[in-house]
From TrEMBL:
Any one Gene Ontology BP term: iron-sulfur cluster assembly
One GO CC term on file: cytosol
Signal peptide: none
Listed name of the protein: Believed to be involved in assembly of Fe-S clusters
Gene3D superfamilies according to UniProt: IscX-like
A Gene Ontology molecular function term of the record: ferrous iron binding
Lineage top rank: taxon: Bacteria
Length: 66
């Protein structure tokens, strides 16, 4: 399944699988952006994100950890 910036929950799940030992609460947005862009199924424009999208991804990732 191809991932785009709007797929915040699916991205969070993929990040949790790719980085199982990371506490997403402490991930900087610059690192988060790079990790999303590095996901195998990510196909969106890397410049298409913003702070609101990254925050939504981070919040979903935190919820996935719980």
């Amino acid at each position: 399944m191809d991932l785009k910036w709007t797929d915040v929950l699916d991205i969070a799940i993929e990040l949790d699988e790719a980085h199982p030992d990371v506490d997403p609460q402490y991930v900087r947005f610059t690192d988060l952006h790079a990790w999303v862009c590095a996901l195998e199924n990510f196909v969106d424009n890397p410049e298409g994100s913003n702070e609101k999208i990254l925050e939504a991804i981070q919040m979903n990732w935190i919820e996935e950890k719980d």
